[in-house]
Design brief:
Structural class: alpha/beta
Number of strands: 13
Helix content: 40-55%
Strand order of the largest sheet: 1-11-10-9-12-13
Radius of gyration: 27 Å
Shape: globular
Order of helices and strands: HHEEEEHEEEHEHEEEHHHHHHHEHHHEH
Distance between the termini: 112 Å
Length: 500
């Protein structure tokens, strides 16, 4: 019996050692996989790093590209498009006006009534906001504009007897969030589509004419009085409330900026005369590019696989359409090189399956166990994710969003540098040292779902703007949010145009 007991004991020891060995190997393997994931994150974080010195290089590059774009057509990645808007709303406007806004994700229709007293009597009487049906984005011009005309007709019908414009031709601003080469404030041809739209037959067509034709076909007594870029609308509303507004930026599905420029600085249009001596310039800054931008392999792959490769490089690093997909690509690589997400979900292989609003929700998840992160990952086919992996996902979101916010700030600072509002007097101002020290109050109007709804993006942007400009100058720069600014401001522009 003693020998049998010894044998059993020896076997038990061997078995225990074997189990322990398996467990050790699993732990070693698990640590190795975790180290792989951490290395991927570290490499990505380093690639996205945007210290203030680098941001200032982006600022300088933006200002130089602006100057080149104003000097000649095709002289810069920035198109620097003339808008023929030179008189902005001043608060004396009266009457009822309409706006239709075609954006990247939604379209809006609204009615505004003005009483002629700045800010104290601006009555936005009705606003409709609808998602753009996906099939319209690659349909035909006729289908798209017939849909918009039908939507306007339904909006008008809902007014009943409420509107004071019964029997009177309605004046409409068409806010169009895509690059247009204007021939006047009320006409312009489409240069190219962005934000996922692909109706190629429309390139080169007059956008205002397309909408007016659709309205006429439906027998609607509506006049397209102005064709307005969304940034210009935001600038108009900002200026209406505060005449120190000289810049407007939109951060939504896409991104763009405009600003008020002296006409004598628009060299490519010599002899351009305006009553105000200035004109709003639509930068189309989504296409900005500089070697100083912190680009990673994930950005390169996203661009190569997009519908517009080698185009809109700046937009693809900071706009709402793309941030979620950058996060997705990092997670996909981690899942391919380790099993920390469990069995790899095929959903992570689908481009744009992770939307930026989901990134925002995960990034700003303040529950103790990051339950919102777990829920979103489960919706993407990844369940039972450990807390440390959920924290890793939040970190990825943070890296992507921090870079986007800081680059957005550099873009704004670049505009301020060009117009001499950065404390340095501008890149070609020729001002004396004493004059450069005099800083004027400057308001930047900002609109768009990314800025309005993503708190961390907004905070990173505003924090970086202070870093770039410095405390002394940044106290004179005011960033103001413009809710529905592009639509309301476009209606104000029509009022200003018709009463000037």
């Amino acid at each position: 019996m003693g020998k049998v007991a010894v044998a059993f004991a020896a076997a038990a020891v061997v078995a225990a050692c074997s189990v322990a060995g398996v467990m050790v190997r699993k732990r070693v393997k698990s640590r190795r996989k975790w180290r792989t994931v951490v290395e991927i994150l570290k490499e990505f974080e380093e690639g996205c790093d945007a210290p203030v010195g680098r941001l200032r290089q982006v600022v300088d590059a933006m200002a130089v590209e602006m100057h080149a774009g104003l000097a000649s057509e095709g002289g810069s990645k920035l198109k620097m498009l003339l808008t023929y808007v030179h008189d902005l709303p001043n608060g004396t406007e009266k009457g009822t006006y309409y706006a239709l806004h075609l954006g990247g994700t939604y379209f809006r229709i609204l009615r505004v009534h003005l009483g002629g007293e700045r800010s104290s009597y601006l009555d936005v009487q009705d606003v409709e906001r609808h998602p753009i049906p996906s099939h319209l984005m690659n349909s035909t011009s006729e289908v798209l504009f017939n849909f918009l005309a039908f939507s306007l007709e339904r909006f008008i019908q809902k007014e009943g007897n409420e509107s004071n414009s019964q029997g009177v031709k309605r004046e409409l601003a068409f806010t169009f969030s895509f690059p247009v080469k204007h021939t006047s404030i009320s006409s312009g041809v489409l240069i190219k589509w962005t934000k996922g739209f692909e109706i190629s037959e429309m390139v080169g067509k007059d956008i205002a004419e397309c909408l007016q034709g659709a309205l006429n076909r439906r027998g609607l007594d509506i006049h397209v009085a102005a064709l307005v870029n969304d940034t210009v609308g935001a600038l108009s509303l900002g200026y209406y409330h505060d005449p120190d507004t000289v810049v407007a930026v939109v951060f939504g599905t896409g991104t763009n900026a405009c600003y008020l420029e002296r006409t004598d600085a628009i060299i490519k249009s010599q002899g351009l005369l305006t009553t105000s001596g200035s004109m709003v310039v639509n930068m189309e800054w989504g296409n900005f590019w500089s070697s100083h931008l912190p680009r990673t392999s994930y950005d390169i792959d996203l661009d190569a696989e997009s519908s517009n490769p080698n185009d809109m490089g700046f937009e693809k690093m900071i706009a709402g359409m793309y941030l979620g997909d950058i996060v997705r690509r990092v997670i996909l690589r981690m899942s391919q090189e380790s099993d920390i997400f469990g069995p790899s979900s095929s959903m992570f292989s689908q481009p744009y399956v992770l939307r930026t609003n989901a990134v925002s929700a995960m990034h700003e998840d303040d529950t103790p166990e990051l339950q919102e992160v777990a829920r979103i990952l489960k919706d993407l086919g990844v369940s039972e994710v450990p807390l440390k992996v959920r924290k890793l996902v939040v970190k990825i979101c943070d890296v992507v969003t921090r870079r986007a916010g800081r680059l957005a700030a550099a873009g704004i600072a670049g505009i301020l540098k060009k117009v001499g509002r950065d404390g340095g007097g501008g890149i070609t101002s020729g001002r004396s040292r004493g004059e450069m020290q005099m800083q004027r109050r400057t308001v930047v109007a900002v609109e768009g779902g990314l800025y309005m709804n993503y708190t961390m993006f907004r905070e990173y942007m505003e924090e970086a703007l202070v870093e770039i400009l410095g405390q002394e100058v940044s106290q004179y720069v005011v960033v103001k949010a413009m809710e529905d600014g592009s639509s309301i401001g476009s209606a104000l522009l029509v009022a200003s145009l018709l009463q000037s």
